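Our preliminary data section would be incomplete without showing what the modeling component actually yields. Below, a chain of 713 amino acids is followed by its predicted structure, encoded as tokens that our downstream tools consume directly.
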Amino acid sequence: MSDTDQRHPDEQDSDERHSDRRHPERRHLTTVDHAGEPSSFVGRRHELALARRMLSQARLVTLTGTGGVGKTRLALRLAGSVGGAYKDGVEVVELATLESGELLGPAVAAALGLCDEDSDSATLLMDYLSDKRMLLVLDNCEHLQDDCAQLVDRLLRRAPYLRVLATSRQTLGVYGEQVLAVPSLSVPDPAHPPRDIARHDSVRLFVDRASVVCPGFTLDAGNAACVARLAQRLEGIPLAIELAAARLRTLPPERLLSELDACLDVGGDGGSVTLPRHRTLRETMDWSFRLCSPGEQRLWARLSMFPGGAELDTAEEVCAGDGIDAGEVFDLLSGLVDKSILAGERRPDGFRYRMLESLRAYGAQALEPAEARALRSRFIRHFREVAERNRIDQVVPDQLERYRALQREQPNVRASMELGLDDPELASIGMETATALWGYWLIAGTFTEGRYWLCRFLDRVPAPTCTRGTALWVDAMLALRQGDPGAATPRLEECRVLARRPGNEEVLPYAIRTSGVLAYTTGDPGRGMELLEEALARHRAAGDVSGVVFALYYLAAYGSVEDPDTSAVLGEELLELCETHHAVVCRGYAQLSLGLAAWNQGDVPRVEALVSAAAAFTEEVNDRWCLTQCLEVLAWAAGARDDHRRAAWLLGAAHSMWQAIDASPRRLSYHAVWHERCEEQAFQALGERAFRAAFLEGAKQRVANRVVHAISA
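Predicted structure:
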């Protein structure tokens, strides 16, 4: 799935995201203009050549400069031009929407497609990148400067082939860092001939953007001096040029220059000590703000609340009221797009409106305190509803659509939870958002982030409610997934006490279920299975189909070795429930659990059919936990057919992914014994040299290639 978006192509502190279905956190290296077509990259020939040379000599290059000067655009262009030199690829991680340094490691891990099984994301990243020849682009580091510096320093020390390209308003201060200060675009002398004026990048950019809002606009002898003067007054700042060019929709160049002169002359009389380019950009934004209607001004300010942008219905729900009628929101959005304040991202289901970081920061300053409080409440409540409406843990037909909706809304959902933490009256609503996201965190593999939010809300909201009970068992479950039973145990103890209070009974089956997982994984499988069976009975009695599905999965997977026949019966029921309810995300786990039972029953063809189907789908949604297990089981099946080279190849592919999720087949009792046996048989059949060659070949492949090989070879 690919998206076409509209954006300010030369504002480099932007928020353009990669829409690849497996890696939504990564960004495209191509930008598009307001007509939805790829936009031209204007100028920067010297800076590109210099940056390439610096990147060939240094392992960390930081592009610095003021907001709106072109850092992100230059970084993306540079990354696109040198990508072929990095056999493990170029990865772009957008940090502008990340507000907490504690989430930096998990965010980078998620962008790389890693599942943070361990709470130490930095260690996971160092291990994963230790042998990778990769370019990592960290965009918009300035608000997380110290955290970025520490992470980059650790990564570069541990990963000798890694190179990092960062954009920031200030240097990171890491040893060996080379810094390229990104200047404004070159500006001409208005007295020069039109041919000379046309050669300057600021003029080329202005003409390029002007031709979008005024088709047919060209530079000629009649307007060259005026355009040169405009570029000069705007000091070659790309964002300022973009904003000014948008005004040509209603003003001729001469009138535009006159208004701009008046704006900048007035702005310059205040004796401000602000750096000239900062002042020029600020005054250009002031000018653009004044040229907006009162309604557009209010909407600009209110949309600054959305780090991830907003769709029309969201803007209507959250931003309407107090001077903005819901029926006029669309027209106001259109007006802001026309003025280049907003950029529209075209999607199959409509448009998403985004604002550049510099413009978001400006808009936030225009919010009155009372208006901000009311907006904050609506924002937090809206994204609580978004999280509830898109719960992944519910066995429903649109699980995949829900998952992708939450992927799109993650920056906004994070912002809503952060705001909830800061407001005691709304913290309980923020906790409801966090608990509703547990299924998403499970599939996305972002366990550290989930625990980060849950722990903070548990500290803020002590009331013994069902919501707190849910937060307790969810945090325990995520801790168990990270191999941390010591943290899970006290959470579950409190949860069980809370669940037995009147009014909290609905939490009890989940507390028992998670306690069963704890018992099983800490060496008491008999007690674990008893608790899981009790949880299943309680879910059935409550008519909780979703609870039944998760209990069935644990029982089927954990029991597959000792009692494969019973496990197969449970797996068949699980698969039937998923197919009846068209729950495609849960179906992958059902197929895996049934495949494990079939393996222990000796039915290899059925194993391959079930697990290959699960692998194909879980690769599509980037569910690394399920996909890794699928590749492991497919290796066993290959070995059972005496295709030991394929088995070794798949073991290598699985090994690479076990490392990526910081886990091991030896940690799962239903994997350990068969993993050892498959590895030993392949080694004996092939010999050390051939086994190692096949294993390493599999370990080197990227995820998509591994899965294609696994299910089709």
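Strands lie at 4-5, 60-64, 90-94, 135-139, 163-168, 178-181, 310-311, 343-347, 350-354. The longest helix spans residues 399-421. Preliminary results of this kind motivate Aim 1 of the renewal.
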